[in-house]
TrEMBL record:
Matching SUPFAM superfamilies: Second domain of Mu2 adaptin subunit (ap50) of ap2 adaptor, SNARE-like
Domain of life: Eukaryota
Protein name: Coatomer subunit delta
Keywords: Cytoplasm, Cytoplasmic vesicle, ER-Golgi transport, Golgi apparatus, Membrane, Protein transport, Transport
Self-association state and partner proteins as the record states: Oligomeric complex that consists of at least the alpha, beta, beta', gamma, delta, epsilon and zeta subunits.
Known function: The coatomer is a cytosolic protein complex that binds to dilysine motifs and reversibly associates with Golgi non-clathrin-coated vesicles, which further mediate biosynthetic protein transport from the ER, via the Golgi up to the trans Golgi network. Coatomer complex is required for budding from Golgi membranes, and is essential for the retrograde Golgi-to-ER transport of dilysine-tagged proteins.
Family the UniProt entry places it in: Belongs to the adaptor complexes medium subunit family. Delta-COP subfamily.
């Protein structure tokens, strides 16, 4: 079968959402849609009608029609199956089955149609899979957020206990100093009492001495205690982080951004135009040899600060790879993109949307990649010797990418204590709650393309150490797609632009 187009039209023939899947001129698709209301009769039970060149397969939805246009050589049963799948998608994305509701969900519907039909052929997918692809949900991301939230809660509980212990020690210290108060002179008693209430820190005592002498003693002591407690809290936090580092926890800015860094990342870019290019890698590698699946999904998103800067086109370039296929936003001029690699709107009088949100304009997929294209290969060799299992793991990185924040997570059988690490290139952490061994390498570049580690645990089944999960990021992509210049559609110099390019792991497993 070859699906030419899929549309949602009103009974008057007005196209609300339309997505074509083969090269057709705009005038032809508009002519086919305009002819449809004249061909549909009243009181007929069939759901298709044919002309000399095409077949219309349709289904009424409330006051609308869901319409699939195919060639006449297409199998009618497959056409009906495609129509049935699309009819389930419309109520999933449209808040109401009328013109207003469909128009409001036009972009989501067009994206869902793209996932259901590719190059005129129906994809073997379900409605649930299409929703997952469009929402780009990740089980690994949810698991990561749960683990991080658990760590945050544990940290808060530990900090509360530490604060309670410190306050208790201050009270005990104050009682001890009061017991020796009669042995001191009045001046010494006043100074000692102030130090005891302020935590015995000479820094607070110095700040107290420098206070103006004309102030009453009681209010001054009260203000000092409040100020001292504020400074003490900051000091306790630092001491707590240091104690976590001493216990082997990874407290690194590269692996866990601080609150200030998170705030900075949410600040709008300074340039009028910002381009975000991201590729997500999904890989399942067999533990022996071979690849179960290898899939790359990319997105180019645009953020425009001002309405006046939205009248532009983007000139891009990319590496020509086998298996690389592009999908453009329904409002992008597809012919211009295919012929000149220029991203521009169909309507030149309509600017790109402005604001703080990024607008995805182009998506792509790379599927025909082999094992030699893997950014990182991980091999695990568990071997049982007596009552112990020796687990040797090695990695080998491709020269194509420099990898950042690499984390290799190995599941372990239930253990009473942390495994015994014999040798490691990098850092490690044992998550007893989830029974995970995490091997971390901050950066893999030309200096450490390969590395290994070995740890020992009690005797266990070798399959207990799989699947191994791998996470990393890189500042370059497989497609090497980038924006080379901004082409203004109105008079004036091109606006400045910045672009962020990154490769991240979505699901990278060794099974």
């Amino acid at each position: 079968m070859v699906v030419l187009a899929a549309s949602v039209v009103s009974k008057s023939g007005k196209a609300l959402v339309s997505r074509q899947f083969v090269d057709m001129s705009r005038s032809r698709i508009e002519g086919l849609l305009a002819a449809f209301p004249k061909l549909v009769g009243t009181g007929k039970q069939h759901t298709y009608v044919e002309t000399e060149n095409v077949r219309y397969v349709y289904q009424p939805i409330e006051a609308l029609f869901l319409l699939v246009i195919t060639n006449k050589q297409s199998n009618i049963l497959e056409d009906l199956e495609t129509l049935r799948l699309l009819s389930k998608l419309v109520p999933e994305y449209s808040p109401s089955l009328d013109e207003e509701g469909v128009c409001r969900a036009a972009f989501d519907l067009a994206s869902a149609f793209d996932e259901a039909i590719s190059l005129g052929n129906k994809e073997n997918v379900t409605v649930a899979q299409i929703k997952q692809y469009c929402e780009m949900e990740s089980h690994e991301e949810k698991l990561y957020k749960l683990v991080m939230q658990s760590k945050i809660n544990e940290t808060k509980d530990h900090m509360r206990r530490r604060v309670t212990e410190i306050e208790k020690s201050k009270i005990d210290r104050g009682k001890t100093e009061k017991a020796f108060a009669p042995l001191r002179s009045p001046n010494d008693f006043s100074d000692t009492n102030s130090r005891g209430r302020l935590g015995g820190d000479p820094i607070f005592a110095d700040s107290f001495i420098q206070k103006p002498k004309g102030l009453p003693s009681a209010p001054t002591a009260t203000s000092k205690v409040a100020g001292g407690m504020k400074l003490g809290k900051a000091k306790k936090t630092n001491q707590f982080l240091e104690s976590l580092k001493a216990e082997g926890e990874l407290i690194l800015e590269d692996t866990q951004p601080s609150g200030s860094q998170s705030r900075l990342s949410s600040v709008p870019p300074s340039d009028p135009i910002a381009v975000a290019i991201e590729e997500k890698i999904n890989v399942t590698v067999k533990r022996d040899t071979g690849i179960h699946n290898f899939d790359i999904q990319g997105t180019l998103a645009l953020q425009v600060q001002n309405d006046t800067d939205g009248f532009i086109q983007l000139q891009i370039k990319n590496q020509d790879l086998p298996g690389l296929s592009f999908k453009t936003h329904p409002y992008i001029n597809k012919e211009l993109f295919n012929s000149q690699q220029i991203i521009g709107a169909k309507d030149l009088n309509r600017p790109f949307p402005s604001g703080q949100n990024e607008t995805p304009l182009v998506k792509w997929r790379i599927q025909e990649l082999g094992e030699s294209s893997l950014p990182l290969s991980v091999n695990c060799w568990p071997s049982v010797s007596g009552n112990e299992t020796y687990v040797s793991i090695e990695y080998e990185a491709s020269e194509m990418f420099d990898l950042h924040n690499v984390v290799i997570s190995i599941p372990l059988p239930a253990l009473r204590g942390a495994p015994s690490v014999r040798q490691i290139d990098g850092e490690w952490k044992y998550d007893s709650r989830n029974s995970l061994f995490e091997w971390s390498i901050i950066l893999i570049d030309q200096s450490n393309r390969s590395g290994s580690m070995e740890f020992v645990v009690p005797a266990a089944d070798p399959s207990a150490f799989f699947p191994i999960s791998v996470g990393f990021s890189a500042s370059s992509t497989f497609s090497n797609l980038k924006v080379t210049s901004i082409l203004p559609l109105r008079e004036g110099s091109p606006p400045k632009f910045s672009q962020r390019i990154q490769l991240v792991t979505d699901n990278y497993l060794v099974i």
